[in-house]
Amino acid sequence: MISFEALIHSRQSVRKYQNKPVEREKIEKLIEAVHLAPSACNSQPWKLIVVDNPELKNEVAQATFSKTISFNKFAQEAPVIAVLIIEKAKLIAQIGGLVKNQEYVQYDIGIAAAHFCLQAAELQLGTCIIGWFNGKKIKKLLNVPKSKKIGLVITLGYPPDDYKQRKKIRKPVQEICGFNSYS
Questions:
Q1: Residue 79 is part of a domain; what is its CATH number?
Q2: pTM given for the model
């Protein structure tokens, strides 16, 4: 088993995939990772839709780019697309969010997506979180009620064998962390 430290160092956004299906057992592990994700007041305000039907997956992928905005075109290569739908949080979490002026549901969706992506990396699968998509079109394709909102779309699949681990470019730690004070 890979250590957590090695996992967070190796996980990267993958934008190229092999034409190889993802095994159902691995998808079930990803679902369990999302299922176990923490959330404000244990609301679990999400519904995960796994799209592995090739024709439907292609239509969902096409809803992540357009003629003028094509940077998500790689989504067509992924054999699986996961869609996180935002569900209503528990009343106590909603009230807390209003009182504290925080969008806990957005944090919760991010945590669920991180669980999905880290579990995928451990399983030698690649992912890319997509925040730019045609939500109206995806909702129609996946029979999502109009009152719901799509939080994130995640591509999933096997990266090519020669896919290079990129050097992570991050701000210096001193810019993103302070001890006992904002500095």
A1: 3.40.109.10
A2: 0.93
